[in-house]
């Protein structure tokens, strides 16, 4: 495994310098783009890494995955009455489709869908962002994970479009709590900081039929695990999901902090990170590294 990661790292590292960091979030604009790390966690819990795999970074939209799993644990199949499971084909922060479809978001990984899921968790937890922090701490076996309040506050200051989505869904009776409360927790979830190693460990239950080896517990049942992996495969990289499926062929989720998590069901989970993004908002080196991985292991869910 180490030689595999070294080959991928050396294959992709010359691309450093391509892409741009997420400048529309001021607190992320100053992140050094010349960073690159990979970590793989097998189903026995062994982690192999290369590069800056121990460096914490803002997980951003990867948090939507954990937010969804928490809601699934409480709402079960009832969750899908309020959010769909179809690819959107539009930018992650689009309002057009949301109005056309009467306030029901296409899937839980676009912003509108993640906000509905956050609203559902707001109804279940006294402090949803602390509940999610504790959740990822258990999944990753790292009690030092925290949310960066500077990043969360920076995103909250630029909340207008997300607030518009939430109020539109409230007008369609698909949002129960106070919008500002939900937005605070939503941005604190996005501002959680984890390393490649943390994320590879925390994702491993999706490669292991819902079982987390670090907490010795079942996070999801087998059917729910299959559902989440299917959603990751079709919607995890927004409007680049089709190309990602074509080139990589693995369930995955990206964030504008530069991280991409992916799953090889039955074998291992992994995280790649490099802050510079392509025009779709996904890590340039992260996508390239995953393409390199699947070429080398000759494995795809398709």
From TrEMBL:
Homotetramer. One of its GO terms (molecular function) is glutaminase activity. SUPFAM superfamilies: beta-lactamase/transpeptidase-like. It comes from Alteromonas halophila. Keywords: Acetylation, Hydrolase. One of its GO terms (biological process) is glutamate biosynthetic process. The keyword Acetylation applies. It catalyses: L-glutamine + H2O = L-glutamate + NH4(+). Belongs to the glutaminase family. The keyword Acetylation applies. It holds the Pfam family Glutaminase. This is Glutaminase. It is an enzyme of class 3 (hydrolase). Its EC number is 3.5.1.2. InterPro entries: Beta-lactam/transpept-like (IPR012338), Glutaminase (IPR015868). Substrate binds at residues 61, 111, 155, 162, 186, 238, 256.
């Amino acid at each position: 495994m180490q030689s595999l990661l070294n080959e991928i790292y050396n294959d992709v590292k010359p691309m450093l310098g391509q892409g741009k960091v997420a400048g529309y979030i001021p607190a992320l604009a100053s992140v050094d783009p010349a960073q690159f790390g990979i970590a793989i966690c097998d189903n026995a819990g062994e982690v192999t890494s290369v590069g800056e795999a121990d460096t914490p970074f803002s997980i951003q939209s990867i948090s939507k995955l954990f937010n969804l799993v928490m809601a699934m644990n409480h709402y079960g199949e009832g969750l899908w009455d309020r959010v769909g499971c179809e690819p959107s084909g539009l930018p992650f922060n689009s309002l057009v489709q949301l109005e056309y479809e009467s306030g029901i978001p296409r899937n839980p990984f676009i912003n509108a869908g993640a906000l509905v899921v956050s609203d559902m968790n707001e109804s279940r937890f006294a402090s949803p962002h602390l509940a999610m922090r504790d959740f990822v701490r258990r999944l990753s076996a790292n009690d030092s994970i925290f949310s960066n309040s500077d990043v969360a506050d920076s995103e909250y200051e630029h909340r207008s479009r997300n607030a518009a989505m939430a109020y539109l869904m409230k007008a369609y009776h698909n949002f129960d709590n106070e919008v500002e409360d939900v937005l605070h927790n939503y941005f604190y979830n996005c501002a959680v900081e984890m390393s490649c190693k943390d994320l590879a460990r925390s994702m491993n239950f999706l490669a292991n039929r819902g079982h987390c080896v670090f907490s010795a517990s079942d996070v999801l049942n087998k059917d729910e695990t299959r559902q989440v992996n299917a959603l990751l495969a079709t919607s995890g990289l927004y409007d680049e999901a089709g190309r990602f499926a074509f080139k990589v062929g693995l369930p995955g989720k990206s964030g504008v902090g530069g991280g991409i998590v992916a799953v090889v069901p039955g074998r291992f989970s992994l995280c790649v990170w490099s802050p510079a993004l392509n025009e779709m908002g996904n890590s340039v080196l992260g996508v390239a590294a995953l393409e390199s991985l699947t070429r080398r292991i000759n494995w795809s869910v398709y």
